Amino acid sequence: MSSEDERPGEPAAGGPADSAPAAGGPEQLALIRETVRGAKVPKAKPRTWRGAALAKELPVARVVVNKGVLHLDQYFDYAVPEELDAEARPGVRVRVRFGAGAHRVRDGRREGGGLIDGFLVERRADSDYGGALAALAYVVSPEPVLGPEMLALARAVADRYAGSLADVLQLAIPPRNGRAESRPSPEPLPPPPAPAPGSWERYASGPAFLAALAGGGAPRAVWTALPGPGWPEELARAVAAALASGRGALVVVPDGRRAARLDAALTALLGEGRHALLTADSGPEKRYRQWLAVSRGSVRAVVGTRSAMFAPVRALGLVAIWDDGDSSHSDDRAPFPHVREVLQLRAAQEGCAFLLGSTSCTVEAAQLVESGWARPLAAGREQVRRAAPLVRTVGDGDLARDEAARAARLPSMAWQVVREGLKSGPVLVQVPRRGYAPRLACERCRTPARCRHCSGPLEAPDERELTCRWCGLGAVDWHCAECGGTRLRARVVGARRTAEELGRAFPAVPVRTSGRDHVLDAVPGRPALVVSTPGAEPVAEGGYAAALLLDGWAMLTRPDLRAGEDALRRWIDAASLVRGQDDGGTVVVVAEPTLRPVQALVRWDPTGHARRELADRAELGFPPVSRMASVTGRADVVGAFMAVMRLPADAEVLGPVPLPVPPPGRPRRPGEPPVGEVWERTLLRVPPGSGAELAAALKAAQAARLARGGTDQVRIRIDPLDIG
DNA sequence: AGCACGCCGACT
DNA sequence: GTCGGCGTGCTC
After folding, report:
1. What is the DSSP letter of A23?
2. Which residues pair with A75 in a beta bridge?
3. Which value, in Å, is the radius of gyration of the alpha carbons in chain A?
4. Could you tell me the pTM of the whole model?
5. By C-alpha distance, which of A281, A239, A237, A241 is closest to A257?
6. Contact between the CB of A102 and strand C at under 7 Å
7. Amino acid A96 CA to nucleotide C12 C1' distance, rounded Å
8. Number of other CB atoms surrounding residue A712 within 10 Å
9. CA A643, C1' B4: Å apart?
10. Chain segment A350-391, per-residue pLDDT in tens
11. How far is the CA of A107 from the C1' of C3 (A)?
């Protein structure tokens, strides 16, 4: 199996003098084997380990190379030179020669194969690789950054999302910064005392959840938070309870604004030094310093945005996500993991508690409760009634009948509520962002039009023909499944102008705006009109007196499966900033009162809404009950990919359908076809339980195609977002 | 992706 | 004979 006169670092075809074994036992020599092709003998560059001995103990380093290519999604073994023995510990960053010809010898010099980054995952006594091992080039830094828990998590995430381990590690481990590493991290503080329940008392099982956490338990809960400003403190208490048990805690929020609020609440409750804030707002050095403090165990609690979901918290006791319906919880880099899914994996893997909190409720959260994986953590009706504002609706029909309203494009009831509200404080006006693409819906009852074959959304690209966005089949003689109507409509209204007109109608009142470009954090409690797009609503001192939610139809008819859920979430977010109804808080939503999300807002019942959506999705074969994946790329490439792919037996193929060409002038986004190419998207759907099989099949097909050298890649996305 | 190896046609 | 075309396959 091995010929003993070969040693890396020695000349290839050298005589006995050249190849005389240096120090090192026969078991080390056995590592270095004849290459299959014959007389070629590996040869290290002088600066690596030429002539050097191997490490005496565990001379093999198993390395994950930092190349996201799928058919390289495997470990590679390297020899550990003696002088790297001490530093080459599991978890450190290394550099290795990698590439065809890395073992080729010319003029007694090893050549080819550039240096690439990797992580050392394990030291071993021997290798199961049949060829000759190359040596580690060097250890980048002795800091161990990839522990066994993180490795297992990254592996699970890669499998779940049909991605490579290296891709996930790139999301999980921040780039190195030498200065940050050279600084010592602070001494860890002893666990704090268990916190009092505080406002968790408002939830029937709130104090019990906290007590279980503090006692070292691992409860899992979907928490429907009461509207109002209480959530940061409540999350802070959950973190404190986990810390009190001697374990760590991790909370992921959607954006820096909310991270700052939670940061403040934690500092108020626990003081400085017990938690790290991991957001993109701090620069790379500071961020890495914080990350290292967590990795080294100096800090045991983490608050952060998306990428903090991988933070290497020691002895994790609690993972929590706030507002899981916010789209920024979905990573925008391959393989596009979602914070909720990653934290679920962590909770299962590390046996820790799980808390999903939101004032609203996603279908996925409802499914966690329905499946029994998590328990509901909600307040009673009386608490909800006290905390939530009064919600009134104005339908489009009312708008049409109301003479004055038609002129001003606002129903008179909305006028009254605004006028009344301005007497006692600020009034919030929520206006949908421009660019919301409404979906085709029944003219009579507004039910979105769906394909009768696969239940995909219908569209009318040329105004005449109806086709399905999922399977591409034409829809002839469409009629509404709900009311039997045969006419469709899709209107677009200048929503922003409505708000501006509203501002002009109250000239004595200051108008402030908050939106994409300039987001206001807070406004004073004085009377003012605050016009905001969803998600940018400032907090009002003392709460808003009233809120006006305009053009609900535009939010409800977006071509997205989550349109209803999203609209409800954004309404609830805005309405949560309004005073409770006992204090006169009133919300007017301009939308069809019969629609499910509108009714859920009136009853303030986001959980019921999500439960009914979940039942519908199960019936129609939609995610998250079924698992879906999209395959996108040039038409011929998608075709070739699908030809290679071995589908799970229970998989359904929808499409392919051509992708819309992006409007000229705008820079092309990833996933959009370049000019002159026709791209297609095929959707794959499998029933519950076959998700892992689907991901594995996609990955295998991608690897097979890549190995064949094609530069023509398809984009694979598990749980695609824009499929509605 | 790179990069080398291998098995075919036109040149000194 | 042998230089070099780029098709195919490997990278510890």
Report:
1. S
2. A64
3. 30
4. 0.85
5. A281
6. yes
7. 10
8. 15
9. 30
10. 999 999 999 999 999 999 999 999 999 999 999 999 899 999
11. 22
